[in-house]
């Protein structure tokens, strides 16, 4: 039994129109109602955030953006800011997803600035870390993952970082159907928690939720969530259908009650 409340988050990536997003959010909200033993968050595309915020009104489901800029406003064509995400109804923002690092030039330094900006605005950063297959095969997993973590939190103290959520997403497990074995995932999660303790102290480290992401499905959610340092899931593909996402939510609630 841990005091960390499990968190099940859906990253919808580049999918769903406004109407589709509202329908999916509505089905999830109907299941979650005014709250379960785990927290539940959905992350639609930016153009659906405001509409989904309306759908989620009165439910306990939280709303996440998938990215932000670190500046509040100004000459930054195409960007969104923490202020605008708050205005749209968000409580969370995914940061440093491997797809952003791979395809859009996201750097550790940028991730750190975004984390700091989100915390100032009381948005919860969900910071993604993870190694590629090549890095795993070269035995570099912990160097890569712990290095990304250290960079993301550099210069920020445990008080400021209190709301932080970390998501460990091995790149080779994302969208591939190839999930990390629960024990292998736990090994990295345990190392993440030890690193967090080394960086900012044990009591903070014990309060930070560390999610697993990468081909999480109803069939593997319970096994992953039974691991001591896996506090929830960041779900891609399976979060796009209520009939897959709801059983994963229920697995999160079971973890809380076990
Ligand atoms: P999949 O669940 O589709 O593997 O995606 C995981 C992910 O990238 C969540 O952020």
What does this protein look like?
- The protein has one domain (7-237, 252-257): TIM Barrel, CATH 3.20.20.
- It contains eleven helices and eight strands.
- Helix content is 45%, strand content 14%.
- The mean pLDDT is 97.
- The longest helix is centred in the last third of the chain and has 19 residues, at 182-200.
- Helix 1 packs parallel to helix 2 (49-56).
- The chain is globular, with a radius of gyration of 17 Å.
- The chain binds 1,3-dihydroxyacetonephosphate.
- 1,3-dihydroxyacetonephosphate (13P) binds next to strand 8.
List the helices and strands and how they pair.
Layout: E1 7-11, H1 18-32, E2 39-43, H2 49-56, E3 62-65, H3 82-88, E4 92-95, H4 98-103, H5 108-120, E5 124-129, H6 133-137, H7 141-153, E6 165-168, H8 182-200, H9 202-207, E7 209-213, H10 218-225, E8 232-235, H11 242-257
Parallel strand pairs: 1-2, 1-8, 2-3, 3-4, 4-5, 5-6, 6-7, 7-8
Helix pairs in contact: 1-2, 5-7, 7-8, 10-11
The structure holds 1,3-dihydroxyacetonephosphate.
Summarize the structure.
Helices cover about 45% and strands about 15% of the residues. The protein is of the alpha/beta class and about 260 residues long.
Strand order of the largest sheet: 1-2-3-4-5-6-7-8
CATH class: Alpha Beta
CATH evolutionary superfamily? Aldolase class I
Order of helices and strands: EHEHEHEHHEHHEHHEHEH
Please compute the radius of gyration using only Cα atoms.
17 Å
Architecture in CATH? Alpha-Beta Barrel
Oligomer: single chain
Uncertain segments? none
Strand content: 5-15%
DSSP helix count? 11
The hetero molecules present are: 1,3-dihydroxyacetonephosphate
From the N-terminal CA to the C-terminal CA, the straight-line distance is 6 Å
CATH fold call: TIM Barrel
Structural class: alpha/beta
Could you tell me the number of beta strands? 8
Task: Output mean pLDDT.
Answer: 97
